[in-house]
Amino acid sequence: MSVTVRVPAKVNVQLAVGAARPDGFHDLANVFLAVSLYDEVTAAPADGLTITCEGPDADKVPLDRTNLAARAAELLAARHGIAPDVHLHIKKDIPVAGGMAGGSADGAGALLACDALWGLDTPRDVLLEICAELGSDVPFSLVGGAALGTGRGEKLTELPVGGTFHWVFAVADGGLSTPAVYGEFDRLAEGVDVPEPAASPALLEALATGDTTALADGLANDLQAPALSLRPSLAATLTAGTEAGALAALVSGSGPTTAFLVKDAETAAAVAAALTASGTCRTARVATSPAPGAVVLGS
Q1: N or C: the chain end with fewer CB closer than 10 Å?
Q2: Closest CA to 286 of 266, 295, 278
């Protein structure tokens, strides 16, 4: 018997970052939106804990205990006093190290898959506690839809979404380290009075009403400047997408994937084709939002 869980990527339609805290983290106002690019995590019985991976850039995915999927299995097993005997197979479709929470998605997917495989029926609030222990983005990968993340992003308030939004994601060559981008944020913020992060009321209203134009006006990412500082070539990608017809463009999370909000599916296809032809990115992917969180596909 095996259990497969599908789990979505995310885009941060607003990422407001506060000053560095004493523990090294940053307080955030992080408006997450799940998008229709998915990884699948399959859990099967095994003697011990093993991981395999297939899909784009699978060779860049760690197959040891540093993988969040492995850590999820270990933490869940420890909560229930059992051995983490499971084989986890990750079918990647979310860009690796791309600022779209692919690793976090795999952690949430493995957690739900192992819970189902082992017949544990762990309460959802406990699953979310384990997610928060795994990483700041992992709880949202479990929840999906749209949510405001506060604290370091792990404290979620689910948000209403009043329509479908169309996106194009330009996948860059290579990844960007999230800690490195936050480090560059801190460097750029030296001597600057960094305001307390807060969600934009206008952006939340745009989500709730499904107003694509208003959402485009409100897109914001405080990590964009440090990501561009570390990877200046991303500016050309952002320009190519907006010139091709995107309503707005931003770096997705800590990058280097860039996100383009467009008015409809037809425009999405045209912008994706233009980005691919521009030579400023490795590939471009079309997606919609919101998307459901981690869900068991079958056993």
Answers
A1: N
A2: 266
